Amino acid sequence: NMSEDYGNTVYDISGNGNYGIIFGAEFSEDVPENNCSELEGVNEELEEFSNLNQIDGFAYGGFLDGSYYFVSQELASWEEANTICNSSGGYLASITSEEENDFISSLLNLELEDGWIGLTDYLIEGDWVWSNGELYAYNNWANNEPGGTDSDNNYENYGLIHISGTWNDGYAFTDHQYIMEIDAIYGCLDSEYYNYNSQANT
Q1: Do the Cβ atoms of 158 and 147 come closer than 8 Å?
Q2: How many angstroms from the chain centroid is the CA of residue 191?
């Protein structure tokens, strides 16, 4: 925020206190467009400007806090769902807040009732982690969950979210719907703009 100039000297007097002086500055009005869209970061409208294409096998669920969400149209085991999400450019949804939890549970098919999320304690029983490496800080386990094992000592190592928003742990080879999350990558696919990013989806 270079906000004052005299001759060929620019003084930074921005409000952040990180003042500075640039000597020998040259001013030009030949400035590229800020963005390739007119949007200025309003979450509710971002999806309108996404260049994500329809992803086979998924229905678009919506956008929240920098992520796009997709609901699977087929059932799969947790491992299969995890592989499909990764190969589609996303990951099984990780949940870090009550707001996100409510949003994701609202996307589930009411008849199927629950779906896989990216939570697992496969490596160490009782040590729950998100498959994308995000910090496990928020949870919404149902009463007496996670159960760990059933009466036959089958391990329940994978997280499920119910339409009520509560979680429980499920078995490796049971099939469920699942939620894929894709991080928004900001930028423009048109190289004429200053914010060009060949990987952009928003």
Answers
A1: no
A2: 25
Arithmetic mean of pLDDT, 116-132 = 94
Q: How far is 69 from 183, CA to CA, in rounded Å? A: 9
Give yes or no for a contact between 141 and 92, defined as CB atoms under 8 angstroms apart.
no
Helix (H, G, I), strand (E, B) or coil at 78: helix
Quote the pTM value.
Answer: 0.73
Check residue 40 and give its pLDDT: 46
Transcribe 37-49 into DSSP letters: SS--S-HHHHGGG
What is the structure's pLDDT at 117?
98
Look up residue 109 and give its two tokens.
């098919």
CB 183 within 8 A of CB 169: no
Quick check: 60 pLDDT over 80? yes
